[in-house]
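Design job #97: recover the sequence.
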């Protein structure tokens, strides 16, 4: 369709690419193809679909849509963000080395260190906010660099272009986990990334009602290998979950604008709060990489982390929130508030958390799209418990 061919605007692509009306009925919403198999006309003759682990028309639509939003060649969706990162890891071979950010979502180093290191892959973790650390960590067998920007939960940024300039001459694939920003605020492929990954569970779905993951590819060999992995390993996304994301992305642009607007208001409120020691948000002028944030992202998003001073303070305030919901995850329309040390980053262990500065007093908030005054009132009354 036209939106696919021309470089239509982001919201237009979100609403139209892969979202074309159903050709048989005219239904405006994409159908959910709840089928495990497809009838064939004769041996070897079919309509492009043979078995639902291999492909499904609802999935095809979602993959086209997400590739268009990230500016990639093709996308492959899997049953969760972690299933996607696992699939990407299988692009490597025993003996390969991966340089990773030292402050990734806790599940990623858990997968790398507790599963893949037993299969002969090596991982090094460095502070990628300085691209020279990536350069220094590269070895002869380095095949991949895996980063998240901003990081979770400390909101440190990595200069994607600078890291890509380190990787490209050495033919090392740069993978960017773009979950926190969504393609609306950050376009890693335009900055030199080779693969972009998302937990679609977060902003892309946007309604906290389904797990999922996507990898957006820039080369045909990656797209082919990842399609083969869908078929061979089978951790594919169900048609219903694909449909939920197709539905969610239609409002991604307006949701992200509102997340961003409210995120800035909440961050300013927290930054002025007398009981809080520190607020981590790239949109604040005192964030050490505020200039990079303005250059690399077109908005600041709504992920904010703040230091309450102790586990007991964190617990006192988290017990009192009413509009914000205490729980893991992020990126939904509802405000979610969490405690990284015991939730998302528990797997790192105390020592691992200390090494990168995740304290017991840190609280992370994913600002939703409720009335921001209600969120401020809620946080204000909860913080009075400290
Ligand atoms: C940045 C990031 N990447 C990946 C994941 C894993 O995604 P999922 O929970 O969909 O497996 C998460 C989950 O919180 C995340 O925050």
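Job complete. Output follows.
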């Amino acid at each position: 369709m036209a939106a696919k061919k021309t470089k239509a605007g982001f919201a237009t692509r979100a609403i139209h690419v892969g979202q074309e009306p159903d050709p048989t009925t005219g239904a405006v919403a994409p159908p959910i193809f709840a089928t495990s198999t497809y009838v064939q006309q004769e041996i070897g003759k079919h309509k492009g679909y043979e078995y639902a682990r291999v492909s499904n028309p609802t999935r095809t639509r979602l993959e086209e849509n997400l590739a268009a939003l990230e500016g990639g060649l093709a996308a492959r969706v899997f049953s969760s963000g972690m299933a996607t990162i696992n699939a990407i890891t299988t692009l490597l071979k025993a003996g390969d080395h991966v340089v990773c950010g030292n402050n990734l979502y806790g599940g990623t180093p858990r997968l790398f260190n507790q599963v893949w290191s037993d299969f002969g892959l090596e991982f090094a973790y460095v502070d990628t906010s300085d691209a020279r650390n990536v350069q220094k960590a590269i070895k002869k067998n380095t095949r991949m660099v895996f980063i998240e920007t901003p990081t979770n939960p400390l909101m440190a940024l990595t200069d994607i272009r600078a890291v890509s300039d380190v990787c490209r001459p050495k033919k090392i694939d740069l993978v960017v986990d773009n979950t926190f920003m969504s393609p609306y605020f950050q376009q890693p492929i335009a900055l030199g990334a080779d693969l972009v990954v998302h937990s679609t569970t977060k902003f892309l779905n946007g309604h906290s009602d389904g797990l999922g993951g996507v990898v957006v590819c820039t080369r045909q060999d990656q797209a082919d290998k990842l399609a083969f992995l869908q078929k061979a390993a089978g951790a594919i996304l169900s048609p219903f979950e694909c449909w939920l994301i197709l539905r969610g992305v239609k409002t991604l642009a307006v949701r992200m604008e509102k997340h961003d607007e409210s995120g800035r208001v909440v961050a300013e409120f927290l930054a002025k709060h007398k009981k809080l020691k520190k607020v981590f948000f790239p949109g604040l002028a005192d964030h050490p990489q505020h200039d990079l944030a303005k250059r690399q992202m077109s908005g600041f998003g709504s992920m904010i982390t703040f230091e309450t001073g102790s586990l007991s303070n964190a617990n006192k305030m988290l017990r009192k929130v009413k509009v914000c919901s205490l729980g893991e995850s992020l990126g939904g329309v509802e405000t979610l508030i969490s405690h990284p040390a015991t939730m998302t980053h528990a797997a790192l262990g105390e020592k691992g958390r200390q090494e990168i500065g995740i304290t017991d007093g840190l609280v992370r908030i994913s600002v939703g799209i409720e009335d921001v005054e209600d969120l401020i009132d809620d946080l204000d009354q909860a913080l009075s418990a400290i």
